[in-house]
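Dear Dr. H.,

I hope your travels went smoothly. While you were away I took the liberty of generating a structure for the chain from your last submission, since the lab meeting agenda had it listed for discussion. I wanted you to have the full record in hand beforehand rather than looking at slides cold. The sequence, exactly as received, is reproduced here:
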Amino acid sequence: MPACKPCSQSIRRQKQRKLTQARIEKVIPPRYRDARIEQLPEGFADLFASLDDDKGIYLWGSQGVGKTHAVCALAHYFITNGLKVRIVRYSDLCMELRRCFDGRSERSEGQIIEGYCSVDKLIIDDLGTSVRATGRQSDFRVAVMLQITDKRLRDCRATYITNNKPMEYVEKEFDPTLASRLNEACEIVKLTGSDRRRQNSG
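The corresponding predicted structure, in token form, is as follows:
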């Protein structure tokens, strides 16, 4: 005997909740899974709500002010609304691509980059955390960031970036072209406040 309509709807909702939770656990690091958009500073939350769907955010501020917590709150919101999201630390992105050149990756450089270009929302955390002795990012890293940013900009997919430094840093240590693209793709927001890590450890 087929299940009654209310029962089947309840089963579908339950399955959807489990699927959403699985996606949250796959995308968001355990430390930040409780981050919610309601916890964002009022001005930042209002700005986010006012942005077009294809407009990202370049979120910068001092270490420990809550940049990663903020973008993970956005990620939770996106996932619960059915969007495909990826979060990657900039250093991990570089390491993932480096494996292509020493035979440790089963995917090509192009396949890896496409994976980051094709999701609805991409979050790159801690941009530029590793810099060469020259004070500039390598040509390869600049090219990767340009490729990802350009593709996502053309496809009207929002990109969210956190950094300890303002956009002027991107122009100086990456490339003026990348800074120009990010200025077009993202709203620039400075997050202020005290070091939350020190508060939590105290």
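Two observations you may find useful: Residues 5-27 form the longest helix (23 residues). The chain has one domain: 26-196.

With kind regards,
E. W.
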